[in-house]
From TrEMBL:
Keywords: Repeat
Protein name in the entry: NACHT domain-containing protein
Highest classification ranks of the organism: Eukaryota, Fungi, Dikarya, Ascomycota, Pezizomycotina
Domain Nephrocystin 3-like N-terminal: 262-414
Classification via InterPro entries: DUF7791, NPHP3-like_N, P-loop_NTPase, SesA
Pfam families: DUF7791, NPHP3_N, SesA
Keyword Secreted: no
NACHT-NTPase and P-loop NTPases N-terminal domain span: 12-133
């Protein structure tokens, strides 16, 4: 931080002023040399050395560049002190030289008297006066700067506390006493000089700690994602009478021998997996173990005193894609390791740690490498991982098993996953496996007794029927459960209902006999037991929950309920919050009572959300057979129920009635946007709109009769944004403008091609000034990132955007505020959009971004044997003429793109980048014609001479030609280039022939003869050869002489030599 650097300057100035002030005010003796040992005396030698140090330091301070003008008064004062220091040094040196000429050592009563021998009295008084003025002024300025530094540190600590809590506490404790020194209405009026000196010493060092803290938190934030702890939080806690066997008082007990978890935690063995039937309690068990303090104690026995870092991850199929992905697993584990031991960040992620800008999105390969590095290189720590729900991982289970097995082989790692079906793939001995249904019988017995005995009628039932019969009922439940805890939960719930209905013991036994022992038939039985009056609402609620694909806010079900009476309720919903917290709480309780009544407890409440009782229920409802059954039940007046349209209506109503302006707890990466910044304040609004657009996108892909309703609803939401201000919810016109821009940004990001067809004839829908000012992204960039739901729609959507005034060469970087402003906007956009890929691109034009997304080249001889990661996007762009479309609108083929060769990054023109992509031609051979057509258009517009000149003038690019020489032997590139040249006119070819040595260097000397052999049969006929001869006759003398080559060397009638000469 610049203020910290200025603070250090101020501290140096203060120390100089205090030194000189004491020199003039102190009555102690001044000695000409160090010959005296008097403690009250000062020596000219010492004074000279001190002044020399001050002069050197102040020169260094004042020569630094500071961008902020507010530091000018302090820096001006430092400059004046530097000049006074030079004068004093010159005087003292002169005085010392004068006294050294004498034969005896001289002594003065004070420094003021001493320098009077070589300086006039008025000069001395003027210096003392300046020192006094500077001294009082620097104290005030130092107080103000110190206060600003402290406030900024406090702000940084608050912003990043959630991501680096350990370091936060450490720095906060150090900062607290310093904060007290600068408190007060006028900076630090009561601060003593010695305290200010200490501040100058302590704060720069503390600021460095804070900076390190922020850099660490930057990396942690890039690893974190909103759903990281969501699954953990919704897994129910175990009932108080269960899981006591996991940590028995005596580890030699029989139950520990069955479970074995304690022995594994405290002893050797890397892999211990937990299996069990669906609903047997695996997730609850793994959460209980991972969160239990006994686990850490037992792991310490295994680590023999070394620190053990514990990290847990919970997959879920009922959530967002990242919650069921390998990337989500890696980010979760690495985040939890590094947040507990943040000092590891600079060791395992040095490049990301040094990055003070926007962090690039993580790649799966990078994450896997980091996790392996942590497992391999930890010296003073060990790792223990708990991973729940491998069956819910969306990828190849065998792949994830291999990865986990590899991790568990490290002697510093323990790993405990839970699985249902493919435990054999994980291997391991029988002592390292636990089947939940084998160890929960006692838990089921205790739970069943507790749940039934807690009912008010149970004691009277025991009195009536006798304890033998009630005990027999409990035993039947245990036997029939087969270890499935979810089944027991449902059964006890229904039996308690029977008790409430005054059922006899015979009634309860008959109920139990009728309950299927398997879960899916049990679910069907529960659904069939719903009151016929509620069955349509039950079916609608379950389909509503299923198609949401994640837990929903309870208010969504409140609005869904309204649809039953009024289908178009969302269109008339007022744009203001539900008034009070009490009203919202009361409504939520009422809504859940209704949902619970419809669905018989199959949907349950978790805080402010409603979700499926269990994943097995979600799987059951998601089957095609069950969905069809529910759709039939959901019909009203023979009208089909559309869950997605219902979700869209509810989300619009929910957005209208919710708060839009709740500042998030975390707002940026390194430089945090201010909390009152409307772009950041609208984060809740943007997230709701993103969900809304997801429903609209899926509706649009369905087509059919819902399209008109979708368009009407989206138009209504767009219009409603403007009325929020009128209702007093948002009082800022700028915020309303940003909200509308964000809304339309998400429309585009969702790829709603059919809806956009009704909007894009308007040139104001994507207002250019608003997108440039608030989003710093062209709508074209969003199209390239989030293609329309119909790939065929890509072209006309992009075309319509360009027809409305946007160019593929637009650059929307901030015009004010520099890099800090850019970071603020882009980091805020990452928060509110989650379209992170856009912000990973090198900031440039939409054209450059499209090229970088589709033709990003990473080369080396070994790389061209496998397809690039961009190949799929590249082929899609070719298939739908994306490149040709933008070229038709003036896309600049001479703008620069990135190319990586053997770890080095270079910039080359887009036309050359496109040509070099030929090395991957075997992988997109079906699109050869489209590729060649596009390449021809690029070469027609290319300006090789311009880049050739830049190349010769840029030292950092001097290796590009040599690197290009290595591309797959050059043959594929040369052949494609030759074909394309043969299709150009003479004039178009001429710019490559006479435009410098660019093409020459693409075809290096070692390939010239081969290149010629390739060029000649591919369209270079005799006429062309003669044209080349004439060109060479004009070119060689000047160019050859310039390179120190003899013209005679090229005086030959051999056509091939002419061609080679042409390229030399």
């Amino acid at each position: 931080m610049e203020s910290v650097a200025v603070l250090a300057v101020a501290g140096n100035v203060l120390q100089f002023l205090e030194f000189t002030w004491k020199l003039f005010s102190n009555a102690g003796k001044i000695l000409a040399s160090a010959g005296s040992s008097s403690e009250e005396s000062a020596h000219l030698d010492d004074i000279c050395r001190t002044l020399q140090d001050f002069t050197t330091q102040l020169k260094r301070d004042t020569s630094s560049n500071y961008s902020t003008r507010k530091w000018e008064p302090m820096l001006t004062r430092a400059d004046a002190c530097e000049r006074d220091s030079e004068k004093l040094l010159a005087i003292t040196t002169k005085l010392r030289a004068k006294t050294q000429n004498g034969k005896a050592s001289k002594c003065w009563a004070s420094f003021k008297i001493a320098i009077a021998e070589v300086w006039k009295a008025n000069e001395i008084e003027a210096l003392i006066s300046r020192i006094s003025d500077h001294r009082s002024g620097i104290i005030l300025e130092l107080c103000a700067t110190t206060s600003e530094v402290v406030q900024r540190m406090q702000s940084d600590l608050r912003q990043w506390e959630a991501f680096n809590s350990l370091r936060h506490k450490e720095i906060h404790n150090t900062l607290q006493p310093l904060t007290k020194l600068v408190q007060g209405p006028h900076g630090c009026p009561n601060t003593q000089l010695q305290d200010l000196n200490q501040l100058c010493i302590d704060l720069p060092a503390l600021s460095l700690d804070t900076r390190q803290y922020v850099l660490e938190a930057t990396v942690l934030k890039s690893l974190h994602y909103p759903e990281l702890s969501l699954r953990h939080d919704i897994i129910p806690e175990p009932h108080e009478v269960t899981l006591h066997w996991a940590f028995p008082p005596s580890q030699g007990s029989n139950m520990d021998a069955i479970g074995g978890i304690c022995s594994w935690l405290s002893g050797p063995g890397g892999l211990f997996w937990v299996s069990g039937k669906p609903g047997s309690g695996k997730s609850t068990f793994i959460k209980f173990i991972a969160d239990n303090s006994n686990t850490q104690k037992l792991l310490t026995q295994w680590s023999k005193g070394q620190e053990v870092i514990l990290a847990a991850h919970y997959f879920t199929i009922y959530g967002t894609p990242i919650q069921r992905s390998l990337k989500g697993l890696f980010r979760s584990l690495i985040y939890k390791i590094l947040s507990q031991e943040p000092t590891l960040i600079r060791k395992v992620l040095p490049q990301r740690y040094k990055n003070d800008k926007i962090q690039e999105p993580w790649k799966q390969s990078e994450l896997q490498s980091v996790l392996k590095k942590l497992a391999r290189e930890l010296v003073h720590s060990r790792l223990c991982f708990f991973i729940d729900g491998l069956d819910e991982y969306a990828g190849d289970q065998l792949d994830i098993c291999e990865i986990l097995q590899d991790l568990s082989r490290s002697p510093c790692v323990k790993l405990c996953p839970t699985v249902e079906r493919f435990e054999n793939a994980l291997g391991g001995d029988t002592d390292s496996k636990l089947y939940m249904q084998d160890v929960t019988r006692t838990d089921i017995q205790q739970y069943t007794k507790t749940m039934l005995r807690s009912h008010p009628r149970w004691d009277s039932l025991v009195s009536e029927a006798g304890s033998d019969k009630t005990d027999s009922l409990v035993q039947q439940i245990i036997d029939k459960s087969s270890g499935v805890f979810l089944w027991v939960t449902l059964v006890t719930r229904l039996l308690r209902e029977g008790l409430t209905n005054d059922d006899s013991i015979q009634d309860l036994n008959r109920r139990l006999e009728n309950f299927p022992s398997e879960l899916e038939p049990f679910f069907r039985l529960i659904l069939d037991s719903v009151d016929p009056f509620y069955r349509d609402r039950m079916a609608r609620a379950l389909l509503f929950a299923l198609h949401a694909q994640k837990p929903l806010h309870i208010q969504m079900y409140m609005f869904h309920d309204r649809e039953y009476e009024e289908e178009d309720y969302a269109l008339g919903e007022p744009e203001r919050m539900i008034a009070t917290l009490q009203q919202r709480t009361s409504q939520a309780a009422r809504v859940f009572r209704r949902v619970n009544g419809w669905c018989k407890g199959l949907l349950e409440r978790n805080h402010d959300q409603i979700e499926f009782l269990h994943r097995t229920l979600y799987d059951f409802i998601a089957t095609p057979e069950m969905q069809q059954t529910l759709k039939e039940k959901a019909k009203t007046n023979n009208t089909d129920f559309c869950p997605l349209l219902s979700l869209l209506r509810a989300s619009i109503a929910h957005t209208k009635r919710s708060c839009w302006l709740q500042p998030p707890a975390f707002t940026s990466y390194v430089t945090a946007p201010k909390a009152e910044d409307p772009l950041v304040a609208l984060t809740p609004f943007a997230k709701m709109v993103k969900d809304m657009m997801d429903y609209a996108r899926r509706l649009e892909s369905m087509g059919g009769e819902t399209l008109l309703s979708t368009t009407t609803l989206l138009d209504n939401m767009d219009m409603s944004i403007g009325t929020v201000e009128a209702n007093g919810e948002v009082r800022d016109t700028k915020t309303i403008t940003i909200a509308r821009v964000l809304y339309r940004y998400h429309v585009l990001g969702a790829g709603l091609a059919r809806y956009l067809a009704t909007k894009l004839p308007s040139t104001t829908y994507f207002d250019r000034s608003s997108f440039a000012l608030f989003i710093c992204q062209s709508p074209l960039s969003v199209i390239f990132e989030r293609s329309p739901s119909s790939k065929e729609a890509f072209g006309w959507v992009a075309k319509a955007i360009m027809d409305s005034g946007y160019s593929p060469n637009d650059s929307f970087l901030p015009s004010e505020g520099g890099r800090e402003m850019e970071c603020n906007i882009l980091s805020a956009m990452c928060i509110i959009t989650h379209y992170t890929r856009i912000f990973s691109l090198r900031q440039g034009t939409p054209w450059q971004q499209l090229v970088e997304m589709t033709t990003s080249i990473v080369l080396g001889n070994e790389n061209t044997s496998s397809p690039p990661k961009t190949l799929s996007d590249f082929m899609t762009a070719l298939e739908h003429d994306a490149f040709l479309l933008l070229l038709g609108y003036g896309a600049n083929v001479n703008s620069l793109a990135l190319i990586k060769v053997r770890g080095e990054t270079f910039t080359i023109p887009i036309w050359l980048n496109f040509l070099l992509y030929t090395v991957y031609l075997p992988f997109f051979s079906k699109h050869t014609t489209a590729y060649e057509t596009t390449l021809d258009q690029m070469l027609k517009a290319a300006e090789p001479e311009t880049w050739s000149q830049n190349l010769r003038g840029a030292d950092h690019q001097h290796n590009v030609p040599q690197l290009i020489k290595d591309l797959a032997g050059g043959r594929t590139v040369l052949q494609t280039f030759a074909k394309s040249l043969s299709r150009l006119t003479r004039v178009e070819r001429g710019k490559f022939a006479g435009g410098g040595d660019l093409v020459v260097r693409i075809l290096p000397e070692s390939l010239n003869k081969e290149a010629f052999a390739l060029l000649e049969p591919l369209g270079l006929n005799v006429v062309m050869v003669e044209e080349l001869r004439r060109d060479c006759e004009n070119m060689i003398p000047a160019r050859g002489a310039k390179r120190g080559l003899s013209v005679a060397k090229f005086a030959t009638d051999d056509v091939r030599d002419w061609k080679i000469a042409k390229r030399l």
